[in-house]
Every structure is written in structure tokens, then in C-alpha cells.
Amino acid sequence: MYISEIIIDGFKSYASRTVLSGFDQSFNAITGLNGSGKSNILDAICFVLGISNLNQVRVTNLQELVFKQGQAGVTKASVTIVFNNADRTRSPPGYEEYSQITVARQVVIGGRNKYLINGHTAQLNRVQNLFHSVQLNVNNPHFLIMQGRITKVLNMKPPEILGMIEEAAGTRMYEMRKSNAHKTMQKKDKKLEEIEKMLEEEIVPTLNRLKVDREKYVKWSSLGDECESLEKYCLAFQYHEYSEKSKSLEDEIKSSSKKLNSLQEQVKEAENEEKEVTKQIDSLKKSKKGKSTSGTESSELDAELAQLNKDLAKLTASTENKRKEIENERKKVESLTTQIESCKKQVETRKSQQESTKVQLQSVQTESEQLERRLVTLRERSESVAAGVAVSLTDDGTITERLMERKRIQAELSTQSEKLRMRSEHITATLEKNKTQLSKLAKQDEELKKVIQKKQSELESIQNKRDALHFDPKHYEQVTKQITHKQSELNAGLQERIQTLTAQVARYYFEYNKSAVKQDRVMGLVAQLLSVKDPSKTCVALEVAAGSKLYHVVVDDENTARSLIQDGKPNRRITVIPLNKVRYNEFHPNTIKSAEKYGAKPALVLVEYDQSIAPAIKYTFGKTLICNDLDQAEKVAFDPQILCRTVTLDGDVFDPSGTLTGGSRGQLKTESTLQKITELSQLQSQFDSEMEQLNALQKSIDANRMNTFMEFNSECDLKMHELNLIKSRSEQSSHSMLLKQIQELQNELDSIANVQLPNCRAQESDNEQVLRSLEEQAAQESTIVTTQKQRQEQVKKIESEYEQVKSLLKSKKTQLRESQQSFEKSNLQMEQDLLEITECESKIFKCKDQINKYDLELSQLESKSSTCRSNQQSIQSKIDQDLQEKDRLDQERSELRSQRELLAKRSTDLSVQYNLMDRNHKQLQERLEKAILLSDQIRQQHAWVKSNHHPYDFTKETLQQALDKLTNAQQERGKTGRSVNKKAMAMYDKAEKEYNDLISKRGIVESDKQKIEQVIVELDDKKRVAIQKTWSKVNGDFASIFSTLLPGAKSKLNVWKNEKSNDDRDDDDDDDEDMDRQVVVGEIEGLEVKVGFGHVWKQSLTELSGGQRSLLALSLILALLSFKPAPMYILDEIDAALDPSHTQNIGRMLKSHFAHSQFIVVSLKEGMFQNANVLFRTKYVNGQSTVSRVMGHKSVMSGGGGEDDDDKENENANTTNVKSSSSRSKKRARAE
């Protein structure tokens, strides 16, 4: 396997894709100027081989491998090496089938590092394994020879050179592991010493101590056996004592029972007498109830009387207040009437004043107008006289002015007449034109009319269909309102009450997962499944009779009950009654007959229920009788023929066992829960009924017909809208607009011809007549123009008259203004008086209404007061009667109570005696039970006592003596037990076992140590043999390579010791024998390099030149590499310290000694790459490196070292350069 092609892209100084192809299988050289990128090619090879030590490729991180670290637009560095794998014998394992192996590595800025083998992504370990299998370990690169490595070998000491031989032989790893093994054995030896010390100081003394503890434990155990024997004896003795004691106690109990029975009879007689007295007291209570009102009624009467007194006081106060209010209102009416009369008189006075003022105002106003006209006339006359014109003044002005006005009117009339004529001609022409255009648009108008007619017929058809439904929207609306009203009533009344009751009894209901249990199998609560016949009376009694069973859940069978509880997950704790498993007690027919004599009824007859759930209802109420009152309940409960549980209507319970429960319910007066549930059921039924009626109303509305009607109605609206749109379009069409315009023009033409033009001509004719008349008047009137003096006198006269008239007019205007102000002021005052009169009349009307209202209220209050007084007297008489009857009954009841107290005291004394005797009797029974219990316990816990207590002789000693013996034995055992290690047996066995295990393990460790030492001895022998073989091979190659590089010289590796021997070191044979002897016995400590020229061996390497020492180090390195040859070697400027002749020898040596390995050599010397089969030259152009393959390089010598900057280097190289290069080579040869 060797490199055939390298592709570099973006790696270090190679910015663009660079391909190095055509590598030779043997010898390849790379040359170029310093810094042109030669070593970067070697770094690229190491990069692909998977190098991890980045210092060897002269960077600190992978990002620096990218061209200019990604700052020049290149963000990825990629190197691909193509290996020729044609030789299957040298192929890596697993890749024999590939003729080529392509390995690539990429690194991206900010991205990940990626490897590819034959185009497929691979992990780093896979790539390293590939190259390790062919001796190419880039992290320990023996195949990579740098210039610094040669210097390092030159400075190596003999032990380091021996280490290189050992590494080449493969024994270096063995030495490291042998050293680790020796260290481990030293640690184990130390551990063994610790174990021996532990055995002597801890384990053996512990074993001895545990042995003593074991003996104490055996003694303590024997005492335990003795205690156990004594315990059995004492137990048998106790069992015998308890048996005898039980027999004597049974006799005492029989005697005590007889005495108790006798005393119990006496107690019953005393109780019966007390009951008789109690019955008499109760009869008095009943008679008191019949003759007078109860305490509650009496208190109600007192409360009512007090309320009546309060009401009467309020009514009396209200009556007085109403009378005062009526009197006040009447006074207000009188005052307002007087005020109205005064205002009316003032209004009449002001009206008369206004009439006189109005007449005066009209007179003054007329005179003022006359004076104003006179002023105007005088001013015109003065102006005419001053102008020298003789005028005839009238109200319409001078004749000249009138004549000019008439001429102007005549001109306007002529102009208007001409305009009307021209407008008539224009309209006529426009009409002709429009009529022609209208005939053209007639067809379009006909089409629109047809569409309108069609839409009209469609609309009528839909309206007929809608009317055929006979649907009345008003009726529908009325029924809808009824439904809404009904729903609001249900929500406000029934539903609200249902919600209230549901909230009050919600805690008795429960919810469950209905999907887990079939709903038809869960009937519900017992309270829901029954209905009370008379809820107002019996609900309390039935609720007390049933108790909590009323809220149990009824199901069909036990399987449903199990599913409901387990799978149904109810929201509260429930008790279930399965109908197929429930058991109940029923009344005997004779019992019911006996109870009915007292008026009692079984609870079952007071409820109604479905027979399918009868077992649950019977179980709920059981044998319970409902009675009206306490007396009845007591008699029924304790009747010998009945003896059943009874419940009164108030919820008091009598039990034949002697318990009485109740008394608080009557005081609380709370509504029964069963009553609430019953009412809820009734309301729910009523609600359902109302909902049925509501549904019936809703059904009465034919929804389909209503929907059809609404659809037809919508269609009608739509068609109507379409029709209106078409009509609007028709009205706005060209034809309609033109027709409308023609009509308007025709009307205007008719108006001009018939009205406007005749009127204008008539006015024109009349104006001409007036004009002619004025012209005649102007011609006939002669105007005489007087002298200047006459005109001035006439003007003065007119002006004097003008001033007089003006002064008179001013005074008249002042008088007119004063009269107007006086009139307005009077009018305003009169309006105020009238408004005041209106307000007073309104107030009088309101006062009269209020008086009538107060009169009505007063009569009502007086009526209520009389009614209240009569009720007060009636209630007061009732209260007096009740108090008298109550005093009589209280006296009789007091006497009976004192008698009952005496009987109760006697009964109590007898009861105390009975209780004392009963307590003694119970104590005897308890002692008997305890004795029997203890004997039973002994017999149960120790079954052997019943059969084995007789062999013991209990006459020799008492039970106490036997117990003392047992106590002493236990105490002695207890004292012994304090110092006894009860785990001694187990601890001793465990310690003995651990001791034996340690002894066994110590033997195993010692045996393993002997085996390891024996193996080390055998491996040392093999190591010496391997080193001998390696030394022989390397020594031979070392001498051969060095003699090739430096003809006439020889070299060898000699054995080295710290203490120099006195033997002659120049004797070759002696040295070889000494080497063999030392390798065999393993006494070698190092190897030193010896060099000779001719037959003389140099004593020290310092006698050699620098170049000779470099060749010597290179020879040693290559000799070591040839021991285990790699497929490829890289030499980086190893000839830097050599002259050209030595460089040429290196080339020849590589060809002769490494025929099966590929060499890639970086060099600046011609002598090195002269022997290369392929030469690559690198250049640094425009900031990046380039590579070119030099064709026929052996003839092109002038460009060595990269001195030629020509970009084209090929087989047509300049012959002049070839000759000069050849001559330089010959000169160097002669010089040498």
C-alpha cells in the first residue's frame, strides 16, 4: 500500500484545490523555496493519518489548519489521500478487496472534524486502526524522520540506544509491565504481612474469647430449660385453681339471681303506680287543652293584644294629624282666593289703561308718517329748484324720472320677449332631435318592460303561495308571547323553588360514573322511590322511623352494588341496598290488629311505592308503628301483645327496650328533610306537567309551516328588491331619461307659447301706453326758468318749511317712543298678573284634591280605629277567661305532681337497692367470666394443659410456692444472661470460618506469586533471545547503511557498562564475543555506537565531522526502521547539514535498502532529489501555495532548490540550464 495521489483544499497555505498525482511507488521528492509550503504537504499527510498532537503539525488547534483561519472566505480544510492497494499481501486487514483506498479528513470553522474512508463517514479509531495495521502510527511516528530527530539521536546515551533496540524488538512494553508486576507483588507482600499481624494480634485472641463466651451460653441455655419446666407446672396449677373457682362462683350467681328477681318485681309495682299518677296529670293536660287555649295560643293572644294597642295608638295619632293637615289646606285655599281677586282687579285696571294708550299711539304714529312724507317732498322740490328745473311733484317722483323708468321697463320687456322666442326655437329643434333618438332606444325599453313584467308575475306567484299557507304571523307572535310568559312563570316560581329545595337536600344525593354502571340497575335513594300520603302530618315521623336508611341507595343485585362502589366512584360515602339480598322483619297480623285498637298504624301504610322495590321499603321502615302522641306511643310500645318500636307525629321514639328519644324537634320547628324531598318530587311532577303544556303550545305552532312562510316571505322580499332594482334601472336608462327630458322640454315650450310670451307682450303694450301718456304730459308742460335771485328765495322758503316739519317730526317720534314703552310695560305687568292668577288657581285645585284625599284617609283611619277597639275588647275577654281556667288546672296538677314525687322517691330507693344487688351480681359474673376466660386462655395457648395437668401433684405445695420457685429460677437466669453473649455460638463459627478463609487465601496468594516469578524468569529468557536477534539484524543493517552513505567507513553497536573494562576495545572479535556473552546472561546495560575508518575504530564520536555524525544517526534510525518496515516513510530536510555528495549517497541508499517502501522526501539539495523518481516543486504565489509535478527532472538541474521562478517546468526545459547544472555536478565530483 502506497500513496498515489494527494488532494489538498483550504489546508494551511493551500487556499484552492491542489492535486498532487502520480506519486512513485518508491522514491518521491518535494522541493521549493523556504515558506513555499513544502512541509505543509507533510502536515497534510499527518492530518489524514489522524494525528492528535497538533504541535507536530505546528498549530495549537484545528481551526488554524484552515487557510488564514477562515478570514479569506475559505471556511473548510480538506485533505484526501488515495492509496494504491494493488498488492494484496501488504493490504490492511479487511481492505484486501479494494484496489484503492481513499481516506479523507475535513475540518470546518466552527464545525466538527470528519473522517471518510472510501467516501463513507468513519470514526477516528477506525482510521487509526487502519493505519496501525500497516505500521503507520502517526502519534508515535517512527516512519516520520524530521531533522530534529537526527539531532536527538546524536545526543542519545547508551541506555537510550538500548531502549530503541528494545522498542524495535517489542520488549519495551514487556519491561514496563514487568516493572508494574514487581510493584504489585511488593504491595501484595505488604498486605500479607498485615494479614499475618492481624491473625496474631486480633483474630486468634478473638477466637479464644468467643470460645469462653460459648461455654457461658451453654450454661445459660440449660437454666432456660429448667425455667420452661417450672412454667409448665405453674400453668397446670393455675388452670386447676381457675377450674375449681368457677364451680363455686356459679353457685353464688344462682343465689343472687333469685334475690334480683324479687327486688325487680317490687320496682315494677312502684313504677306502675307512678305511671297511673302520670296518666292523671296527662288527662289534666288534655282537659286544659280542650277548655282553654294552649300556652302558645295564650302568648299569641298577648302578642296580638299588644300589637292592637300599638296599632290603635298609631291610628289615633294619624287621625289627629290628618285633621290638622285638612285645616291647613283649607286656610291655604282661602288665602289663594283672596290673592286671585286682587290680581283680577289689577288686570281690569291695566286693560283700560292700555286701550287709551293704544289709541293715542296710533294717532301719533299716523302723524309721524305724514310728516316724513312731507319732508321727502320738500327735499326733492328744493333740489329741483336749485337745479333750475320746473317740476311737477307727485308721490311717484317727477315726470322726467317716471318717463325714464318706463323706457327702462320697455327695454327689459323687449329683451325678455326676444329671449322667450329664441328659447322656443331652441326647444323645438332639441325636441325633434330627441324624438329621433327616442325611436332608436324604444327596443331597449321594450325589453326592460318585459323583464319588469316577468319579475312582477314571479312576485305575484310567490305571494299567492305564501297566502295559500294561511299562516297568521300575529297569531304566531301571540302564541310565542304565551310560551315566553309561561317559561318566565316556571323560572320565577316552580324552578326557583325546585332549585332551592335541591340545594337544601343536595348533600343526600350522590353522583357516580354512569358509564361504569348501567343506570337502569341503580334505582336511586329510598327517599326518592316513595311518596308520602299525608306529607304535612307524617313526614317527620316517617323520617325518624327510617333514619339514615332513607338515604341508602337501592340497586338490583350485589354485582351492581359492587360495580357502583368500585367502578362508579361515587362522590360521597354511600350505603347500598341490593334487592336480591336484603332481609327484613314483618308484622304479625295479630300485632297490627292490636296496634290499630290504639289508633297506631304501620309506617309502610303511610307511604306509596312500586312493588318492585318493596323489599327495600320494608327493610327501611321495618317493624315501626306511627302514633299520634306520646301517650299513645308509650302504650303501644310497652303493650305485651305488641312490643314494637313506636314514633309519634312529632318525632319522639319509644323503644320496648326502655329508651325514649326526642323532645327537641318540636322546639326547633325545622322542616323535615323527607318533607322537602317529597315536596321536591311533587314540584318536579308539576314542573314536568307545565313543561308538557308548554311543549303542547310549542307544538301548536306549526314550525314547518312557519319556516315555509318565512322562506316565501324572504323570497317575496328578494323578488320585490329585484323588481325595484330593475325599475330603478329602467328609470335611469337612456330611453327613460330621454323621454323625461322630452316631456320637460314640451312642457316648457307650452308654457312659453301659452303663458310667458303672451304675458310679456301684454305688459309691453301696457307700458307703451303709459310711456306715450308721459311723453305727452312732458311736451304739454312748459317749464319756465326764473332768475338766480328768484330760485334762491324759493329754496330758502322750502328749507324753512323743511326745518319746521323736521322739528315737529322729532317731537312726534319722542312722543311715539314714550307711548310704546308705557304700553309694553303695562302689557308686561298685566301678563304677570294673569300668570299669578293661573298659578293660584292651580294651587287651589291641588289643595282641594289634597283635602278630598285627606278626608278619605281620615274616614278610613276612623273605621280602622273602631275595628281595632272592638278586637281589643274581644281578645282581652278571652285572655281573662283563659287565666281563670289555667289557675284551676294548675292547682290540681300541682297536687298530682307532689303525689308522683313521693312515688318516684319510693321507686328510686327500690332502684338503688336493685342496682347495688345487680352490681354485685355483675361482679360475680365478671369474676366467673374472668376465671373461665383465664382458663380458656391457658387452654388455648397451651393445649397440653387440658390433658397433662393431672400427672402433677398439687397437694405438696401451694400455687404461690411454685410461683416463687419459678421467679427464683428466672432471676438467676436473668443475672447469668446479663454477662452472656447470646450471639457467641454464631460469632465463634463466623470467626473460625473467617480465620480458615484467610489462611486459605494466604496460601493462594503465595502460590500465585511463585507462578508469576517463574513466568517472569521464562519471559526474561525470551526477551534476551529477542534482543539478541534484533541487535544482530539492526547491527548488520546499521553497518551496511552507514558504509553506503559514507563509503570506506564502518560502524557497529557495542555493549556498554558503567564501569569500563580493561579489555582492549579495538579487538573486534573480543567485542563480538563479549556482546554475545552479556546478552545471554542479561547483564547488558546499554549500547554505544562505534565508527571506524579502514582498520581503525574511533574512540569517540567527537572525532567525526558534523556531516559524518548526521549520516551515522540517520543510518541508525533507518536500520531500526528496516527491522519492521512500514509501507511509507517521510523525510523532512534530513540533509540540511550534509554536503551534496553525502546527499546523493542517501538517495542511492534508499533505493538499495528500502525497495518495498515508499519515501516522500522534502529537500532543498539537488543530490537528494536527483535520485527521486518523481519530483514536486512548491511555490508561494499571491499569498497561497501551489504545487507542480516536474516532468523529466533529472535533466533539469538548474532549477534545484526552487530558484527558477518560471511557472512552466516540463520536459521542454531550457537546455542551457541542463548543461550548466551538469558541469556544476562534475566539478563537485572532482573536488571530492
Written description of the protein model:
This protein has 1232 residues and is an alpha+beta fold. Among the domains are: 2-143 and 1126-1231, P-loop containing nucleotide triphosphate hydrolases (Rossmann fold), CATH 3.40.50.300; 295-386 and 786-940, Helix Hairpins (Orthogonal Bundle); 399-441 and 743-780; 515-670, Alpha-Beta Plaits. It has 28 helices and 25 strands. The strands form six sheets. A six-stranded antiparallel beta sheet has the order 2-1-4-5-6-7. It has a six-stranded mixed beta sheet with strand order 8-22-23-3-24-25, sandwiched between helices. A five-stranded mixed beta sheet has the order 13-15-16-17-18, with helices on both faces. Residues 390-395, 782-786, 1061-1082 and 1195-1232 have low confidence and may be disordered.
